[in-house]
Write a structure and sequence with these properties.
149 residues, 44% strand, globular, PLAT/LH2_dom, signal, PLAT domain-containing protein, PLAT/LH2_dom_sf
């Protein structure tokens, strides 16, 4: 029960932060396509942190996604979309598992495809697409980083 309450508190905090920074249709549309491997026990119900950075490592976008429900199941391809006021030339991906349950201590991710669509007058007009090939297990307490810089 305490773990569920902690997970709920993290999600509420993340939603409050995002509600304060997201400005609807202004800014940039981020679209993630996330492929979970089809191996036994490869899915997760954990809270997954997606971290995107530029080459200098300075600017970043971090998105927390709860694996409860239909997301990140064995063999699934999940699509997630969100708005951010900032965009940058993303070339690094970090993945972490937070608040894992008793049965799902790890997650096998094949890839994360990131598409950033900008405003025509924005800093990065048009769209930017990166496909980060992960092909490894993400374990609690260990950050997986894919560097394409």
């Amino acid at each position: 029960m305490a773990m569920a309450m902690a997970k709920l508190a993290i999600l509420i905090l993340a939603a409050a932060i995002l509600a304060g920074t997201s400005n609807g249709r202004q800014g940039y549309l981020y679209e993630l396509e996330v492929k979970t491997a089809n191996d036994a026990l490869s899915g997760t119900e954990a809270l997954v942190a997606f971290e995107f950075y530029e080459s200098s490592g300075g600017a970043g976008v971090i998105r927390l996604v709860d694996g409860d429900g239909a997301l990140f199941k064995k063999g699934s391809t999940d699509r997630l979309m969100f708005n951010e006021p900032l965009s940058f030339k993303t070339c690094r991906l970090g993945l972490r598992l937070l608040d894992t349950g008793l049965l799902d201590k790890e997650w096998e991710c094949e890839y994360v495809r990131l598409r950033i669509e900008g405003e025509p007058s924005g800093q990065f007009p048009g769209e930017v697409i990166r496909k980060f090939r992960v092909n490894q297990w993400v374990r609690p307490g260990k950050r997986v980083q894919i560097d394409m810089c």
